[in-house]
Amino acid sequence: MTPAWTAHLPPGVDGIDLLREGTLVRAWIGRWSADPARRLLHTEARGWLSAGALERESRRFAGRLHAAGLRAGDRILVARPSSAELVVAHVAALRLGLVVVPANPAYSERELCHIARDAGPRAALLASDQARAWIRALDSGIALDLPGDDPPVPLDHAEPTDPALLVYTSGTTGAPKGALHTHGSLLAGAEAVRVAWRWREEDRLILALPLFHVHGLCVGLFGSLLAGASLVLQPSFEVDAVLDAALDGATLLFGVPTMYARLASSPRLADLARLRLCVCGSAPLSPALFEKIAAGTGHRIVERYGMSETLMNISNPVDGERRPGSVGLPLPGVEVDLASDGEILLRGPNLFSGYWHNDEATAAAFTEDGWFRSGDLGERSADGYCSIVGRAKELIISGGFNVHPREVEEVLLAHPQVAEAAVAGTPSEEWGELVTAYVVPRGPEPLDPADLMSFAAARLATYKRPRAVHLVTRLPRNALGKVIRAALTPG
């Protein structure tokens, strides 16, 4: 039986070996050596960085990491804003064989220190003196300063089965868990979308997604370098900056629904028509927004489906029908099935190895015959197109980022005037979902929702903070006392 993913292959191609090049770093080095003068990376601060420059700078930085005592298999925590220097650090760490632990530079002390304690990194590259003080206070011996010298060291020797990336995801519990990817799973994930999206050396990607998230890091950055394409790295999403890049030779845009909603509201929306391809993921794209972009630009956005544990799984085809409301067909090498309850099951070389130091969670995430339980509920049409219809897990996806209700609830319950709290997502055309809190006050003093939101803002990253707080007299619960989130109402 022909696998469903063959629909993504170019005409005349019958099969694909996703691991043909072994590892991402080996593939990158081969491309850079063949054309060192090729422009790869543009940032406003540094202009264009060539392939040869990225090779040299990453080699030097890897030498500094080695001089600091880091060796293959060691973890390195990286929490810095997007920049050319951050790209160099990621590449250098992978070339040395380190395990990169990306984190949001806007994390609070509680969030950042949880990851540091759990991952046990040997070193950390952080964005601020405050963050360094938090890590230093852990008294864990994590190196925060690197030597200035850069002695030559052996690089690019990692094998496909070696660990490469430890990305923290909320999963099914409040405390984020580390999903461990190998060099092979990263290559498989990037190669699948390179082939499916017809990613070529001539392409130039506008990358305004953060590099602490697998969408921006593993798809945007790693995929561009694998394709030998160039990219314009933007520190944050700005409508005019994206459209200026589209007018200046860019061909690709990867985004989340929030970005496309803002682009759709711009009087310059038609400038987006200059691009070859627009891809959307990390949260559902509404059919109405899909059609609005199509009407204003001629682009029928390629919607796809992925997650931290599996990278990219499913995509609408580039050469074929791009169906609004659907995430499309399985990507090359990926198998998709539906459990009896509709949960999406996944299998393929793009899957993670397991949760870091959490055998129980890993075992629970897989079926006995090796299928990964996504936690998402799906449907499949007669011609194989998949749609996401809900989540078995209670994650909220706001602006493309995962937010687990329990983590936010625990912060709200720490406020002295909160007796009970429940958090759920409410639909938003711009954000996909808004983090919304329902709170039962404690004590005789009135609780000010604005004060509670400020309390949460000091303890949570921006995307996790409640955007609305409703004061209620009670929370709806079932016979076992569990909150019925679907029944939460402001009244």
Number of domains: 2
What's the overall geometry? globular
Helix-and-strand structural type:
alpha/beta
Strand content: 15-25%
Main β-sheet: number of strands, strand sense, barrel status? 9 strands, mixed
Q: What is the helix fraction of residues, given as a range?
A: 25-40%
CATH fold-level topology of the largest domain: Rossmann fold
| Number of beta strands | 24
Rg over CA atoms, rounded to whole Å, is 22 Å
For the largest sheet, list the strands in their spatial order.
Answer: 2-1-9-8-10-11-12-13-14
Mean pLDDT: 94
Low-confidence stretches: none
Number of DSSP helices? 13
Distance between the termini: 54 Å
Q: What is the CATH superfamily classification of the largest domain?
A: ANL, N-terminal domain
In CATH terms, what is the architecture of the largest domain? 3-Layer(aba) Sandwich
The CATH class name of the largest domain reads Alpha Beta
Detailed description of the structure:
This protein has helices at residues 24-34, 51-67, 84-96, 109-119, 129-137, 183-196, 214-227, 239-247, 257-264, 287-297, 359-365, 405-413, 449-457; strands at residues 39-43, 47-50, 75-79, 99-102, 123-126, 163-169, 177-182, 204-207, 230-233, 252-255, 277-280, 302-307, 311-315, 329-330, 335-338, 343-347, 354-355, 372-380, 386-391, 396-398, 401-403, 418-428, 432-441, 468-471. It contains 13 helices and 24 strands. The strands form 6 sheets. The protein has a 9-stranded mixed β-sheet with strand order 2-1-9-8-10-11-12-13-14, with helices on both faces. It has a 4-stranded antiparallel β-sheet with strand order 15-16-18-19, with no helix packed on it. It folds into 2 domains: 4-390, 3-Layer(aba) Sandwich (Rossmann fold); 396-487, 2-Layer Sandwich (GMP Synthetase, Chain A, domain 3). It is α/β, with parallel strands linked by helices and 491 residues long.
